[in-house]
Design goal:
The protein is α/β, with parallel strands linked by helices and 256 residues long. The protein contains 8 helices and 9 strands. The strands form 3 sheets. It has a 5-stranded parallel beta sheet.
Amino acid sequence: MDIHILTLFPDYFTSPLKTGLLGRAVDDGVLDLCVHNLREWTHDRHGTADDYQFGGGPGMVLKPEPFFEAYDSLLKEGLSRKSPVVLTTPQGRLFNREAATELSECSEFVILCGRYRGVDERVREALVTHEYSVGDVILNGGEAAALIIVEAVARLLPGSMGDPESAAGDSFSNGLLDYPHYTRPSVYREMAVPEVLLSGDHSAVDQWRRRQALKRTMERRPDLLEQARLNEVDRIYLEELQESSVMSRSKCRHRE
């Protein structure tokens, strides 16, 4: 896969793209990451890529010329016009596992990193095919969001991870949050690993993990359960958890 990142701050990506599984994916040729400095397509000696916004108001806006001309340059180098062009923006669709999977099925895509008050609207109208937000937070720029997108997509590429099953068991992979994990020692500061995980009974372990994932999701992200792939056993267990929760709250009110 080829990923092109257009940014005012290419140095932002220097270390992350050389680190861990992402760096290995690049070294192994699974992923080809090209970071482009937008100032290469500016037209004054200062490399000015932003300007005041029409209509007044605080903050600067990234000019359209660098984005359009950088995109034209990528087309000349072989980029397909059908390849996705992603804009990182708070106004975008929430970036999640589904969005990462969609991008992982492409052979190439481009990420435009916003800055300041944003990018000239004509860039979004003419070039952008996908707009993503990484959450209801405001960042200094789109570089951090771009890294999140790249890493989430890279994990899904064949050959990017030593154990493919590791990605398959991630949070959100089956619509649920992940279950708790433990490692040695089995007892630490009087805190013991659940006995079932030491039992050697794989069926019991699988059941415990599934129930823990359901419980954690219900407690922390109940909204995910609406789209999760649940079977009848899952639904019965969730009903039991809900009944137990109602009874517990009722007892607390009674004591008060």
